[in-house]
Amino acid sequence: MTNLKTLHFYATPEHDCSYLKDRQAKTLFVDPHAVITKDTYSQLSDLGFRRSGGHIYRPHCKDCQACISVRIPADVFAPSKSQKRVMAKNRDLSFRAVTPQFTQEYYDLYARYITLRHKDGDMYPPSIDQFTSFLVDGAQDTIFFEFRDTNNRLLAIAVCDELDQGLSPIYTFYEPDEEKRSLGTYCILWQIAETKRRHLQYVYLGYWVRECRKMNYKIMFRPIELLLDGHWVSIT
Predict the structure, then answer these.
(1) CB 146 within 8 A of CB 42
(2) For the whole prediction, is pTM greater than 0.90?
(3) What does the alpha-carbon distance between residue 129 and residue 162 come to, in Å, rounded to a whole number?
(4) CA-CA distance, 235 to 232, in Å (whole number)?
(5) What is the pLDDT of residue 1?
(6) DSSP labels, 51-85
(7) What values do phi and psi take at 81, rounded to 5?
(8) CA distance 51 to 45
(9) Segment (H or E) for 128
(10) Residues 6+ apart with CB under 8 A from 65
(11) Which pLDDT does position 65 carry in this prediction?
């Protein structure tokens, strides 16, 4: 059985940083041929690793520590007034948990979201192959959480891995025309509540980079824990 002691890791050559301009980055990957159990994946998450498709990775930059792993302790999380308003705005939504899969409905929402919200990013233009390799392939106890309105219109999908100790949101895409609902924030709040319902501890939000404006939303969930020098530190 594969465990942390028997895993092999591979570092990439330097490449352009996805978060900070004019920076070079390196990435450490878990052996893609290794069979990763839920227990091992859960331990890797506590060490700051993330999953993207069939790859489990973390930043491995020699002279930069800007990428900081963050997680929300579900039991002590206290929503702000604005976050409570977001929850109230979306009370009409229903949810359903389904296995990771491609459907035309899912892909249409994904493509619309990438095109209208992330046209300046490296995920544009969207494609079916991209959707499948990123969100369906390499699933690790993965769930698609569907959110629909009272007319059964699909408004959001939160792709999430279940760990031994919590939930790890992989990606969320939603209807870009529904800005007033703040669906991105709502999906995180919902996953925090779902973590508590499942009697789990943490929601792992991936990496926070102080200088990256697009990541500012992560630090708005308090208290939050940051992985600093190998130790999780709580920020209130």
Answers:
(1) no
(2) yes
(3) 24
(4) 10
(5) 52
(6) EETTEEEEE--SS----EEEEEEGGG----HHHHH
(7) -60, -40
(8) 9
(9) helix 128-131
(10) none
(11) 93
Rounded to whole angstroms, the maximal C-alpha distance in the chain is: 51
| Distances 116 to 131, 177, 194, 215, 219 between C-alpha atoms, Å | 16, 9, 29, 18, 24
Instruction: Please give the Cα distance from 8 to 6 (Å, whole number).
Output: 7
Give the three-state DSSP class for 33.
Answer: coil
Best CA proximity match to 145, nearest among 112, 90, 84, 188: 188
pLDDT along the chain (236 residues), means of 10: 84 93 94 94 98 96 95 97 98 98 98 94 94 94 98 98 98 97 98 98 97 93 97 97
Measured between alpha carbons, how far is 99 from 48 in angstroms, rounded to an integer?
25
How far is Cα 4 from Cα 18, in angstroms, rounded to an integer? 27
Q: Give the per-residue pLDDT at 70.
A: 98
| C-alpha–C-alpha distance, residues 71 and 202, integer Å | 6
